[in-house]
Amino acid sequence: MSQTAHPGAYAPHRRVPLKGHPSLGEKWVQRLLADDPSLLGLGDLEVRDMERSHPRAGRLDMLLYDPETSTRYEVELQLGPTDESHIIRTIEYWDIERRRYPQYDHVGVIVAEEITARFFNVIGLFNGFIPLIAVQMSAIEVAGALTVVFTTVLDRKVLGVEEEEEADEPRDRAYWEQKASPATLAIVDRLLNVARSVEPGIALKYNKNYIGLARSGIAANFLTFRPKRRHVIFEAKIPRSEELTQRLTDASVEMLTYNSRWGYYRLSLTDPDLAEHEELLKELVAIARDTYGG
User: In Å, how far are 103, 108, 119 from 97, measured between CA atoms?
Assistant: First the structure.
């Protein structure tokens, strides 16, 4: 993801280091992201605060918010390569915010020009218990204009404990036909048939807030469905990748914000979408099934 951010008389097609640059410093990057937080590739985010003061801990560069998933992102910016002090600072801001506002999901984000091997070594010490995202930014001069590219090199990943499925209460089909509509429940049935072409023997499991899958009565939610009145939100448990995101975009399927908390791609599907994108849906089912553990 890129943004033409600053014209200049630089040589074509060369990377421009921001650290030590006379005019393109950290504040400049901060303003760029404040104008368009989606550049980070984390979804349609809102800016909640800038330079947020934390007593005895300094200032948090940016606090971003995803209203759809109730997730807050504590963002620390760094020019040049990552170092231990910025990593610790990011974790400290994340910890302060999650303790202060436990009603939200919180993720620490470090944005730097170079995400070093040292960074991954330090993060490995935490064994994934702390949700962190690392984004590498590259300023590249192209034909007289500066383009800044933000690339996620470490996505949020929780390790060390088995991830629990979303807690929910059991319901039945009649509940969902009233909550959504018989027409969208029919779409769910067709999606189940697509899933069964990849994983025979699975069945629908009706819950209060979503419809999941089960094998022999045991939850197997590599796919979940959230029927609405006129469409179904189809969720496939697949790690986010630029390649898959681009394929879905090129296919003109309606893609919703990626669920970073549980790791789901989310598509809005209507009845005509199933015929048009059946092969793509089968592929998503297979990837999700294999990711989940077969």
Answer: 10, 10, 22
Q: Name the average pLDDT for the chain.
A: 83
Instruction: Encode pLDDT of 194-236 as tens digits.
Output: 999 999 999 999 999 899 999 988 899 999 999 999 999 999 9
Q: At what angle do helices 278-292 and 242-250 cross, to 10 degrees?
A: 160
Q: Which CATH architecture has domain 2-154?
A: 3-Layer(aba) Sandwich (3.40)
Tokens linked to 7: 């014209």
Quickly count: other Cβ atoms within 10 Å of residue 77's Cβ. 22
d(CA 233, CA 267): 6
Among 141, 88, 146, 132, residue whose Cα is nearest residue 260:
132
Ranges in the chain annotated CATH 3.90.1150: 173-292
Of 86, 128, 145, 141, which is closest to residue 111 (Cα–Cα)? Answer: 86
Nearest in space to 87 (alpha carbons), one of 65, 110, 118, 117: 110
Q: Is 25 helix (H, G, I), strand (E, B) or coil?
A: coil
